[in-house]
């Protein structure tokens, strides 16, 4: 189904509700530049760092697309756990996992409150940006603490530039991308208003500093296009 969520006047701030979940896979592919490539590079590094009988968490797993791709490529035993607090998303995640016969644990949980077991890999793509800045670093600290000593944290985020002219042009570049994906100016502006203060992006440097402050020994960008980036942080 094509995403037409913002083709009408918005009545509330952006939510991961039934209407969004129903078109979510289309929305991601048409709203996140190089989404498929960010997923592939996430899967590559997740599999590189996943040990025999290891554990991987996907925080903000939505419809479990990333864990399903990892499941398909797994050559060892591993525990795949997807966390999300949108029941509408999780219903679709469970349907997809069942349809593919994938042994993936999908839990309705707040990633800020969840009690993580030790894991080899954490993934959180396009999710931290929805976590209030006041508590975001605390969450990344929890992730670092739950990772085993050579664990990896792979995360993707929308990013900003603190150079005013460049930030403006990055946004224009992104909106040109959205228009090429078939979104109207009206839809782009409606969604921008709905996301105001809901999606709060950091700069590339602020994301790296957050990971280092949270206890990771190294963090760098694996992939970036304009204002979207995928990072890897190593314990
Ligand atoms: N506190 C929270 N606790 C649990 N889940 C949350 C919380 N806040 C937001 N979410 C969930 O985080 C997900 C963010 S979408 C991730 C895409 C996926 N990673 C993908 O790569 O396909 C990104 C986007 O839509 O741009 C949604 O499913 C929310 O319900
Ligand atoms: O920042 C935007 O304008 C977006 O559309 C990003 C996005 C993509 C998918 C769900 C929510 C926000």
UniProtKB/TrEMBL annotation:
GO terms for biological process: methylation; tRNA wobble uridine modification. Its EC number is 2.1.3.-. It comes from the Bacteria. InterPro entries: CmoA (IPR005271), Methyltransf_25 (IPR041698), SAM-dependent_MTases_sf (IPR029063). Residues 56-151 form the Methyltransferase domain. S-adenosyl-L-methionine binds at residues 35, 60-62, 84-85, 110-111, 125, 192. GO terms for molecular function: carboxyl- or carbamoyltransferase activity; methyltransferase activity; S-adenosyl-L-methionine binding. It is an enzyme of class 2 (transferase). It holds the Pfam family Methyltransf_25. It catalyses: prephenate + S-adenosyl-L-methionine = carboxy-S-adenosyl-L-methionine + 3-phenylpyruvate + H2O. The keyword Transferase applies. Gene3D superfamilies: Vaccinia Virus protein VP39 (3.40.50.150). Keywords: Methyltransferase, S-adenosyl-L-methionine, Transferase. Belongs to the class I-like SAM-binding methyltransferase superfamily. Cx-SAM synthase family. Catalyzes the conversion of S-adenosyl-L-methionine (SAM) to carboxy-S-adenosyl-L-methionine (Cx-SAM). This is Carboxy-S-adenosyl-L-methionine synthase. It comes from Sulfurimonas autotrophica (strain ATCC BAA-671 / DSM 16294 / JCM 11897 / OK10). The lineage of its organism: Bacteria, Pseudomonadati, Campylobacterota, Epsilonproteobacteria, Campylobacterales. The gene is cmoA.
């Amino acid at each position: 189904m094509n995403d037409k969520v913002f083709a009408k006047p918005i009545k509330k701030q952006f939510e991961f509700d039934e209407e969004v979940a129903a078109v979510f896979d289309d929305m991601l592919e048409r709203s996140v530049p190089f989404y498929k490539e960010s997923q592939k590079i996430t899967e590559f590094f997740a599999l590189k760092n996943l040990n025999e009988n290891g554990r991987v968490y996907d925080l903000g797993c939505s419809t479990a697309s990333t864990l399903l791709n990892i499941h398909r490529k797994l050559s060892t035993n591993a525990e795949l756990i997807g966390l999300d607090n949108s029941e509408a998303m999780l219903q679709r995640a469970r349907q997809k996992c069942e349809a593919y016969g994938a042994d993936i644990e999908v839990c309705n949980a707040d990633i800020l409150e969840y009690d993580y077991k030790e894991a080899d890999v954490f993934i959180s793509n396009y999710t931290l940006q929805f976590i209030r800045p006041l508590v975001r670093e605390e969450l990344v600290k929890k992730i670092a603490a739950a990772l085993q000593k050579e664990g990896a944290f792979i995360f993707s985020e929308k990013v900003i530039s603190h150079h005013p002219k460049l930030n403006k042009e990055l946004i224009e570049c992104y909106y040109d991308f959205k228009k090429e994906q078939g979104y109207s100016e009206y839809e782009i502006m409606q969604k921008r208003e709905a996301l105001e203060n809901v999606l709060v992006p950091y700069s590339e440097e602020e994301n790296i500093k957050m990971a280092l402050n949270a206890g990771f020994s190294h963090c760098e960008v694996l992939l970036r296009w304009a204002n979207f980036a995928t990072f890897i942080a190593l314990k």
